[in-house]
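hey m, so remember when u said the tokens were messed up on ur end? i reran from scratch. heres the input so u can diff it against urs
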Amino acid sequence: MSDKTVNGKEPTLVILQMTGANDYLNTVVPYTNPLYYDNRPTVHIPPEQVLPINDEVGFNPQMQAIKRLYDEGKVAIIHGLGYPNPNYSHFRSMDIWYTCEPEKVSSEGWLGKVVRDLDPKGDNVLTALNFGRGMPRALSLSGVPVASVAQLDTYGVLSTLSGATRPMVMETFARMYAGTDGGDEVLRYMGQTGLDAQKGADILRSAAEHYSSTVQYPGSNPIAASLQGVAQVKLAELGTRIFYTAHGSFDTHASQLPMHTKLWTEMDGAIDAFFQDMRAHEAADDMIMLLWTEFGRRVKENGSGTDHGAGGVAFVIGERVKGGMYGLYPSLRTEDLTQQSEGMFGNLRYSCDFRGLYATIIDRWLGLDAPSVVGGTFEQLDFVERRTV
């Protein structure tokens, strides 16, 4: 198990997945590079709209709150992320990021292993919490309880039942599954999942009931609603260490400019409100947030959007993050892009293995053994200092 942070609180991690492959070049824009405009005559950000970081790159104009946090030294930009022999399927590439297994298919998620190491006995069914429908494979590991919530106030097993009916049905449910020590593995897994959900449901609903904030989250914004849910649970101090949510789709093959603008407007507004909320409650110093996507997008546009790429970008945000840029921004020169002989021509090359990003967070922030989670030793980054008690 991990040590406590300097201020006596357990470190928490919030992960926001940009599902569908966020366009690297229109997020951290190489606005003074003529090759960018040569490859993107239509699908580009005009240089006068870019929020400059330096005289070479800048943020997408919708990322004003993230730019402000960057200027405060609270945002790390991780350039050129990827893995060897990139896969251009959304599902397979996400799976690789979920399991840290580029060479084989695995059912063991990296965050599932993290939760196992944080809570070896599984004492707290709320150690990890996903906001959204379904369960990301990153959180999957046999024997590790994880709650997945669409809405806090309706979370639970058979939550639409009320009155005297629900306790009777829940008692029957518990009896059905409590004794499944042998037999069908799927039945046993489903039963344990249901029992874990039952156990955590009332606790989670109380988090929403006791939450109070002066911060106004953007309305009609699904990722803002999810991050407000994260805030509610974190402030309830239920022992949740890993929060997961996602937004998208960032799969902008067509109509990219309006789609990408909407997505980043929603993301930036949600992240802004969330960090304001955490700061207002003095709850920001023990938390970092990771934004990631399964791959970047093609350097050359297709006329209306961009197709699947390789090297991508991630962001780590938090009070204890050492802000700045880490890694090298990939070259846009034709000879430096992926070649047809490698499976696809015209994509940004990765220079930083994503497992090194994970390892940094696991080791330095959560205080756990990284190689056993990511499957080896990978170069770490300096965006967060190793914690000391």
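this time it looks ok to me. The first helix runs from residue 34 to 39. if urs says something different then somethings off w ur setup not the seq
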